[in-house]
Design a protein that fits this description.
Layout: H1 2-17, H2 22-43, H3 46-50, H4 60-70, H5 215-219, H6 231-234, H7 237-246, H8 272-279
């Protein structure tokens, strides 16, 4: 174990001193993490981990490799491919993971506070109880990600794709969600206190039971007839006026949209589908 950790630190020095070998070092460390993480995923079932019966931390050599990879700062560096890896409880605070592919990765209880994850791909990633406070997730793709009870306090999620993401009981207080795609997202009992929802697409999103949501926040977002709102907002004055514009007086009650929601509010910028297409990077070379 100690020899492997020492070798990893030596490779970091090689990467720092030699531009020629930087990409080679990244590839070696990425392959090492992949091999170790895949074995861990098979040895510790997810059901056992979530039940609290296993609190095994990431091995020291794997953590050292992740630290080295996360310290890369060079522009144009090779994007990491960490798809479907078991990184539960990993510490990646402030790591440089721009454009990293973490699709399907197990990141339960991972510490990613202040992480640089711009344009990262986290489709169907498992992030329950993960710590993402002040993380930079602009243009990241978190479609169908599992973020129940995750902490995203003051996270930067401008233009992020959270299509059908599971965000029940998540902490999104102070998060920047401008132009984010939250179509079909589940935000039940999430904390949205002070979150910036300017031009966010909440079409079909479920906000029932969400805390800290105000009318002023939703006036700036896009909402359709399938958006489910918290009870305290459904019949506020501005909302009732919107409903009356759609359902004429004396009209059929069955024409009333769900939750009294209007068919739509204003929509600014490109459609959610167009943003999802723009965020998804071109497929990289297949892993060996």
């Amino acid at each position: 174990m100690y020899l492997r950790v020492g070798a990893i630190h030596a490779l970091e020095h090689v990467s720092s001193d030699s531009r020629v070998h930087r990409d080679n070092v990244t590839e070696v460390l990425s392959d090492f993490v992949s091999e170790k993480a895949e074995k861990r995923r098979d040895s510790v079932p997810l059901s056992v981990f979530l039940a609290g019966q296993s609190r095994s931390k990431v091995a020291s050599d794997v953590q050292a490799a992740l630290d080295t990879l996360g310290r890369r700062r060079r522009r144009g560096a090779v994007a990491l491919d960490l798809r479907s890896l078991d990184l539960r409880d990993a510490v990646l605070e402030g790591a440089h993971l721009e454009r990293c592919n973490l699709s399907g990765a197990l990141l339960h209880r991972a510490y990613l506070a202040r992480g640089r994850l711009q344009h990262a791909v986290l489709v169907q990633a498992q992030l329950r109880y993960a710590k993402l406070g002040k993380a930079r997730l602009a243009w990241a793709d978190l479609s169908e990600a599992r973020l129940q009870r995750a902490s995203l306090m003051k996270a930067r999620l401008r233009h992020a794709v959270l299509h059908e993401a599971r965000l029940e009981c998540a902490n999104l207080s102070g998060a920047q969600l401008c132009y984010a795609d939250l179509t079909g997202a589940r935000l039940g009992n999430a904390d949205l206190t002070g979150a910036n929802l300017k031009c966010a697409d909440l079409s079909g999103a479920n906000l029932y039971g969400a805390e800290g949501v105000t009318a002023s926040q939703l006036r700036r977002a896009h909402i359709d007839e399938y958006t489910m709102l918290p009870d305290h907002l459904v019949w506020e004055g501005w909302w009732v006026r919107r409903v009356r514009e759609i359902v004429p007086s004396g009209g059929n009650e069955d024409q009333r949209p769900n939750n009294g929601a209007p068919e739509s509010t204003f929509s600014t910028g490109p459609s959610a589908a167009a943003r999802r297409r723009a965020v998804r990077p071109a497929p990289g070379p297949s892993k060996r």
